[in-house]
Amino acid sequence: MDSVYEDVRSILENRRIRSEILLQQQNEQIRIAHPELADVEKKIADVSEEILKNSLEGQSSEDLQKELVRLKMDREKVLFEHGLSSDKIKIQPYCEKCGDTGYIEEEGKEPVLCDCIRALLAPVMTSRSGVEKYPEYSFEKDSDQFFSENPRMQETYKKLRLLTEKEKVPNAVFYGRSGQGKTFTAVAIARQYAKQGRSSFVIRLAEAQELMMEHRKLIQSFYTPAGKERDVEKRVEYLTQADLLVLDDLGVEPRTANTEADLLNIIDTRILSGKTTIITTNFDMESLKERYGGRFFDRIDRNFVRFNFSSEGARA
Ligand SMILES: [Zn+2]
Asked: What does the pLDDT look like over 9-41, one tens digit per residue?
């Protein structure tokens, strides 16, 4: 996630610099006369950057938020002691909502990314998500081809769409015969996540399995070209860390000695960190149980909401 953070950080920095230029002369004189003001403002900027970084990576910033409150009080104190009004040296930010920090604080809550950052992130997240392989799959496209004769699923689809736009969707298994809109819905959700600046990743399960295999090989080998290693490393990281992961088409992948351990590893890591996983499969629950049994099926059984996409009367 580092490169995204760097891009975003430098854009925000440019915005802050732009705002500062507007008031530069006046401010410069004040700051030259009062170096302790420049000092505390530098600290405020540094802590704000750390908080933004944590928000982008889904980490907590509780201690940093407390420190920020302290620093802002220090700043007020310096201003007061020198008879400066904070209005006089107030900077006009590019984004009024977040003051170009990139996040919005709410009392007693973790900071959330500001809409200005989400807008900056959207194209990056979309290109990383893998949804571009499915250009026709989005909430904006007509879903009638799948759900016009399946009113039950039509309703569910609307609810999932609303949920995606407002908050996060739960872990879910989309099951049922092929051609019923499972992948369509899952990709539409992933695309919407990306549009909102959240990370998502769509991958066919067979490919995910190959990726894990390749990763294992890289770890075990003595020499690997650095570029390739980083690429595999990054993709594996995305499997566990993306806000939303779609594992498409469970059940058609070739069975290997590591299949279940790999799947379990991905799912468990994601459950622990509160990330959403959607699995699509043409198998029904009974067949999945037969095929996987054991701990992997148990995880799905306990932690995933099931959605049967087959139209009514059809074999579930
Ligand atoms: Zn903003």
From this structure: 888 888 887 777 766 666 777 777 788 888 998
CA atoms within 13 A on the CB side of 199: 17
- CATH 3.40.50.300 boundaries in the chain: 121-308
- The contacts of residue 101 (CB under 8 Å, 6+ apart) are 12, 48, 51, 52, 114
Residue 94: pLDDT over 90:
no
Higher local confidence (pLDDT), 225 or 147: 147
**CA dihedral sign of residues 184, 235, 255, 261:** negative
For ligand 1, the distance from its centroid to the CA atom of residue 103, given in whole angstroms, is: 6
Burial class (CB in 10 A: 0-12, 13-18, 19+), 180: buried
Helices 115-129 and 2-22, axial angle in degrees (round to 10): 150
Q: CB-based burial of residue 186 (10 Å sphere; 0-12 exposed, 13-18 middle, 19+ buried)?
A: buried
Q: Which of 98, 127, 139, 140 is nearest to 115 (CA)?
A: 98
Residue 24's pLDDT is what? Answer: 64
Three-state SS at 127: helix
Overall average pLDDT of the 195-211 stretch: 93
Q: Which has more pLDDT, 105 or 186?
A: 186
Question: Residues 6 or more apart from 5 whose CB is under 8 A from it?
Answer: 52, 53, 56, 57
Q: In angstroms, what is the span from residue 242 Cα to ligand 1's centroid?
A: 22
* Residue 100 alpha carbon to ligand 1 centre in Å: 5
Q: How many Å lie between the centroid of ligand 1 and the Cα of residue 9?
A: 12
Output the six-digit token pair for 246. Answer: 């779609």
User: 93 C-alpha vs ligand 1 centroid, how far in Å?
Assistant: 9
Fold exhibited by the domain 121-308: Rossmann fold (3.40.50)
- Write the burial class of residue 243 (CB in 10 Å: 0-12 exposed, 13-18 middle, 19+ buried): buried
